[in-house]
């Protein structure tokens, strides 16, 4: 469940269909317990970033050709346009339309993750799973 697959409430529920009954719902007590476990909070932060930001339309925007820079800092890269050259450092990487699309996707995914987290069975399963494993161990921990 915690890999790079797309998060949907249905997929999380399907993954957790055999969860033992009697799971505590996410309430103030469990939120307090979560807040008292820095390791789980860090894992949750990374999972949220992966599911709500990384695995979004951002991947489509990122899936292009990156220019080569002899200088290494892109100060030698120019983008040619019909009205003149634009230095890489001055270039907007996302159009307003792309930014809007990204933010809509991020908000929708964040809402879904919050619904999942506060779901009685699935949210508790997610927290238990995060106690046992890091969903993106190759990422830096938050500071």
What are the defining features of this structure?
6 helices; elongated; mainly alpha; 143 residues; 6% strand; disordered N terminus; two-stranded antiparallel ribbon
Describe the model.
There is one protein chain. With 143 residues, the chain is mainly α. The protein has a domain at 32-57 and 93-135. It contains six helices and two strands, in the order ααααββαα. The chain has helices at 9-15, 28-35, 38-54, 58-62, 96-117, 120-132, and strands at residues 78-81, 84-87. A two-stranded antiparallel ribbon has the order 1-2. Strand 1 (78-81) and strand 2 (84-87) form a beta hairpin. Helix 3 crosses helix 5 (96-117). The longest helix has 22 residues, at 96-117. The two termini are 25 Å apart.
